[in-house]
Amino acid sequence: MRLIRFEQDGSIRQGVLVDGTAALDVTDYVDDFDGAFFAAGGVAGLAKQLVTAVVPTVAVEGLHLASPVARTPIIVCIGLNYSDHARESGAQVPTEPIVFLKTAATIVGPEADVIIPRRSLKTDWEVELGVVMGGVARYLDSPDDARALIAGYVLSDDVSEREFQLERGGQWDKGKSCETFNPLGPWLVTADEISDPQALGMWCDVNGERMQDGNTADMIFGVHHLVWYLSQFMVLHPGDIINTGTPAGVGLGMSPPRYLVAGDVMTLGIEGLGEQRHVCVAAD
């Protein structure tokens, strides 16, 4: 299934895409697409209900899409997880995953404006595969154990402010957690529909110019390895999101570096997970 959340009459409603033009409005059958939904086996339960339920249909055109996942407890991010991106950043290829966190308040929808922070000169783009947890991962024995614990996958834009991240001391988090710095969507694709998360093409354009053109096959640490690895250090809960890293082509790696300014338009996508479009605006 492809799960969406959309705004209507001032509230958020839940839907399941039927095709490119229509969606089932399942708001009466779920409270939200959140941690409680995934923890209760909501994906399988909803699929079963839809076999016999009479559900209203809404036209997709004109819908204002929100993040397909309700605000989540944590966003765990993996840095430098593509060797070409590590090289363009002037960093060593990591021998273990580099882990940092983003605040859940960064989550916005797939068409939201991205706000360039005050005093920012180095806001950057990063197309990423997002993993949405469907079960509890705690001290997993092997990466194979991760497969059954993933609810689905989502297109994520790990927007970053490089000066705040790299030049202001301390951890990366303050360059990653500015408002609107984690657009998600347009939809969440349930895990059963992604046969191989390590075979998805991905891209990002700025003002119509192709900046990133990669594939999840090039990850240093694959999705299942990451879930297993993280479970050795923290407990992952249903609804938590893992941003799995970005391929080469970010502004930081260009010569000279190139960064986002107000008026720029980012478009990005991952095979099977849809596309996003964001206009960059200055913080007020």
Notes on the protein architecture:
The protein has 284 residues and is mainly beta. The protein folds into two domains: 2-66; 75-282, Fumarylacetoacetate hydrolase, domain 2 (Alpha-Beta Complex). Helix content is 13%, strand content 35%. The protein is built from five helices and 19 strands. The chain has helices at 35-39, 42-52, 83-88, 162-167, 223-231; strands spanning 2-8, 11-17, 22-25, 57-59, 64-66, 75-79, 98-102, 107-108, 114-116, 123-124, 127-133, 150-157, 160-161, 182-190, 201-206, 209-215, 241-243, 265-270, 274-282. Strands 1, 2, 3, 4, 5, 6, 7, 8, 11, 12, 14 and 17 form a twelve-stranded mixed sheet that branches. Strands 9-19-18-15-16 form a five-stranded mixed sheet, with no helix packed on it. A two-stranded antiparallel ribbon has the order 10-13. The longest helix has 11 residues, at 42-52. It starts with a strand and ends with a strand. The model has no long low-confidence stretch (mean pLDDT 95).
Radius of gyration, rounded?
18 Å
CATH names the topology of the largest domain as: Fumarylacetoacetate hydrolase, domain 2
Order of helices and strands: EEEHHEEEHEEEEEEEHEEEHEEE
Q: Helicity level, as a percent range? A: 10-25%
Tally of structural domains: 2
Sheet of most strands: 12 strands, mixed
What is the fourth-level CATH superfamily of the largest domain? Fumarylacetoacetase-like, C-terminal domain
DSSP summary, beta strand count = 19
Please tell me what the overall shape is.
globular
